[in-house]
Write a structure and sequence with these properties.
The protein is mainly alpha-helical. It is 71% helix and 4% strand. The chain has a domain of 200 residues.
Length: 412
Amino acid sequence: MNLFTVIFLAALVSSLTIQWYLLWRHISHINLNRAAVPEAFRDKISLAGHQKAADYTCARSRTGLIDSCIGALILILWTLGGVLQYLDGLWRGFQLPGIWTGVLLMLSVMIISMILDIPMALYRTFILEDRFGFNKTTIRIFITDLLKTTLIMVLIGVPMISLVLWIMEHAGAMWWLYVWLAWFLFSLVMMWAYPAFIAPLFNKFRPLEDMELKTRVEALLGRNGFISQGIFVMDGSTRSSHGNAYFTGLGANKRIVFFDTLIDDLTHPEIEAVLAHELGHFKRNHIKKRIVLMGALYLAGLAVLGWLIEMPWFYQGLGVRTASHYMAITLFVMTAPVFTFAAQPLFSFLSRRHEFEADEFAVAQARKDDLVHALVKLYRENANTLTPDPLYSAFYDSHPPAPIRIAHLNNV
């Protein structure tokens, strides 16, 4: 057996074992604290609401256990199981130019992966979410979203994959640097284009009509020099009863988006406080920092791929007999999460720190109590558990757990 095969399997088993251990801890800790609402929330969240959040989180975690096993099995089938090698031989049989063979293989892998995810997506949407009263999606919307996603993937993916493979064939030994530049520019263009051209394909966006709330929001934005293309309300209730708010876009094409469910659940001062938190990410340069971080990580990853692409053991160790540029990219994208899994706590830590900073900014712009009340409502309405396992939370959670976050706000 190829040494890299052993390393790959060891990394896969290790990451899967850690995932299972953390999820088991998470479920056990939540069930242990299910019987009573944490003291800091007893006057804000009922026992029934607390237990619903506990049951919902445990159900999602058990689904995560299944997802992780299915994902590992599918990865082994793609690689050591020979499915990628079979697809490569199938497309090579048409004797197309190398770039088109690569485009068709990579596109077929993405489409097959989407198809394989459909059963679990159906379960999550129409059984899990429906059981807890969150799902508003119909089968028609589900299928339409899937078809739109596939079409967008083809329309965007084909030219981008073609460009990457062309660069790899013609740019010499430093191809990975030019690919990174192309990817980075493409990512910036997509961030700019998404709110205006892609998001409206899936949801309806209407300008904020509540003039009192609009005045509040515009005053907040004006105080902080934030220029956007508008304030919009999204029909999130057509798919889910979960609520949220976010900034989207880049440069002059930035937009502020409220879910209609959030507008219905929160008071005007609470909405202003939530928006102030989101604005804190902008004012503290979190978006720029994340772009720089992701750019650096992708550059490092492509540099590693630039080395691996010349190594026969890389292909052979993952079940592929014929080396090619497109196969190197496919194998790298599939297996990189296995080898970078251990870095997850670092990214979670950085994200939680940004959330604390955004909260601190928000309380300087809006009333602290309004932000606390808004967060408690969002925890309650979205059924976010108040008692996550600390180790699980440290590893995975991009946002601080509710008790820690509220305590931090009270001490600001």
